[in-house]
Amino acid sequence: AELVQHPDFSEAVRLYVRMTLDACRQDLAVTKLFGNTTQHVAFSLIATLSARAAQIEGAPPLTPTRLIAEIKGMGFSSHGKIEALINRMVDQGLIGRVRWADDGRVTLLQPTDAFLAMDSVLNRMHAMPAALLTDDPLVRAIANGDRSAMLLMRSAAMPNIGEAAAMLQRAPAIAHFVMSEAGWLILLTLVDAIWRGDVRARRYEAIAKACAVTRPHVRNVLLKGREQGLLLQTAPGVFLLAPDFVQVFEAWIAEVLAAFIGCCRRSQRTPVAAAARSRQRARHRGDNGRPVSIRCLTKHAHLRIPDGVFAIDAPTPIRIAPEQQPCRRP
Length: 330
Description:
By secondary structure, the chain is mainly alpha-helical. Helices cover 58% and strands 10% of the residues. It is built from 15 helices and seven strands. It has a three-stranded antiparallel β-sheet with strand order 1-7-6. A hairpin with a 6-residue loop joins strand 6 and strand 7 (302-304). Helix 7 (137-143) crosses helix 8 (147-154).
């Protein structure tokens, strides 16, 4: 409710829609990502688990077995379907298979440059609209393309299926589009065409081509949206937005942006963020930029902080110690 009342909220909604569609038009892989819920969850998991493995010493590496277990634990698909999904992402050039240096018998999943570029697009797609609504420094850093800030956010951004389910329960009319194949993208394409007054872009053929799906699928998704009360059909193949659409649609975008902002705020309370603050203090104290280690009291892992990690100023004091000497909270 707080975001909806913000004076720049309408501009944030339009920016979110425009950036989502621009990303999908520029890269077919992004379009396919939005068309498959399981693949979207897998993408987020790979980004999070790989970020943790890179930043937290002692964190378990990202293996196919671990990714499959995480996805299945969230109630998605079978073992065979997830393996097929991993193979498809490898074929798309999003992830690669490499041998683990510590054990050549173990295969790791490693994000490629294409994956990191897509992750940056997806993060900025949420961060830039959110930056219009909050002064959070991490949100603004991600909106400016700071890769270190994205890694910090991703390290704590484990997909929360329970939170997503609660959001869908609060917006049952939107749930149909979110859970349908490419349904959310189909809805955004229609909304953008109506906002621009482009009649031809609202036809089944144009939407199907833009969303990389079939014409009958577009028709079925939009007819279901009419049953949900979000759309009106004035003639065969001609849809308009229902009177209640704007309120429902904006409420859902507010939920999405609020979830992103909340994730960024939680990220700043993680051990990785604390280590980044320690690194910043070490530089101010003339510690010659030596590596700093922090013992995570909950994970029992050492964090080695590279140069350039995004640092957040916070009132929580962290004691600085040289490498191999763990820090303890006062």
